[in-house]
Design goal:
Strand content: 15-25%
Distance between the termini: 33 Å
CATH superfamily of one domain: P-loop containing nucleotide triphosphate hydrolases
CATH architecture of one domain: 3-Layer(aba) Sandwich
Strand order of the largest sheet: 6-7-8-3-9-10-12-11
Radius of gyration: 21 Å
Order of helices and strands: EEEHEEHEHHHHEHEHEEHHEE
CATH class of one domain: Alpha Beta
Length: 328
């Protein structure tokens, strides 16, 4: 019998409600994460990646964001049924999140040491003394490559890469079983990006943490992930192991489009092919396959019926092009 997944998301639907319209941001996605495993969510801006993360953390905007349907099981317990007080105990201690921009994730009027300490104090259920918590702050700073002597300094005294390291230290303070990294390297220059990714990989191995890596950068996903979910218009259109996605022959047309838009810096020069059109408006999603208005391989029926689900050895692709391959 297989071990219970750390996280198991089933048929999750999330929408943003305004006075004028409903924005369907996530539309029935399912995926799971095992212990010490990293799953990547990849896709263009507006695909629903960050909304998925916020739904897992139960941090959707209070007045507009709603989980309409689905279940989010963490170690067998449905987070969607938890109260606000129960979620406060889970965030940080069990599940932590690294947000997109380290420049705005830190409080400018508190020292970095106090901000790490705050995370420890919130979850200090064992009643550890202040001296022990201070020692843990020093340990965390050392863990991410920052001298503990700098804990009395403020965020503006650190570079972007150093701020991101502090954000990672805060996220890992209570050694959560699941870490959600939402575009953790987007605001950093290329050399610092590489350092942060190496650091996160080392910490994952040391602490045994499972991870969701959210990115639009396929290079980052290839470097860090065991499994990959390709998202489009709030749906997972392709899901499989990193080998399936990066080395396999069969792909959803959207995944193929993402690969064709990547420049090849090491091999022969080649033409880049952008994906025509734009991500659809989530308040007026097309019927049938959501990608069909931009797909060069669309066929009759793509605009009216749910796409065919092709599955082989855990590799799932939602596309009518694979109907013949499945003998249907």
């Amino acid at each position: 019998m297989s071990a219970m997944p750390v996280l198991d998301v089933k048929n999750l639907e999330v929408a943003y409600h305004t006075d004028e319209t409903v924005m369907r941001a996530v539309n029935g996605i399912s995926f799971s994460i095992d212990e010490r495993e990293t799953v990547g969510l990849v896709g263009e801006t507006g695909a629903g990646k960050t909304t998925t993360a916020l739904a897992i953390m139960r941090l959707l905007p209070e007045r507009t964001g709603r989980i309409n349907r689905g279940e989010i099981f963490y170690k067998g317990e449905d987070l969607s049924k938890k109260s606000a007080d129960q979620m406060r105990l889970i965030r940080g201690a069990c599940i932590s999140m690294i947000f997109q921009d380290p420049m705005t994730s830190l409080n400018p009027i508190l020292t970095v040491g106090d901000q790490i300490l705050e995370a420890l104090e919130i979850h200090n259920t064992d009643g550890k003394p202040k001296t022990a918590l201070d020692a843990r702050v020093d340990e965390l700073l050392s863990l991410v490559g920052i001298s503990p002597l700098r804990k009395v300094e403020y965020p503006h005294q650190f570079s972007g890469g150093m701020k991101q390291r502090i954000v990672i230290a805060i996220a890992l303070a209570c050694e959560p079983l699941l870490l959600i990294a939402d575009e953790p390297t987007t605001a950093l220059d290329v050399t610092i990006q590489a350092q942060v990714l190496v650091l996160m990989g080392e910490l994952k191995q040391k602490l045994g943490t499972s991870m969701i890596m959210i990115s639009h950068d396929l290079g980052v996903i290839a470097k860090t992930c065991d499994k990959v979910a390709v998202m489009y218009a709030g749906e997972i259109v392709e899901y499989g192991s990193a080998r399936d996605i990066f080395e396999g022959r069969d792909h959803h047309p959207y995944t193929t489009g993402l690969f064709r838009a990547i420049p090849n810096l090491l091999g022969e020069s080649r033409r880049l092919y952008p994906i025509d059109g734009l991500m659809p408006d989530p308040s007026a999603l097309p019927s049938g396959c959501k990608f069909h208005p931009r797909c060069s391989g669309r066929m009759s029926g793509c605009d009216g019926e749910a796409p065919f689900l092709f599955e082989e050895n855990g590799h799932r692709i939602q596309c009518n092009l694979f109907r013949k391959m499945a003998g249907q």
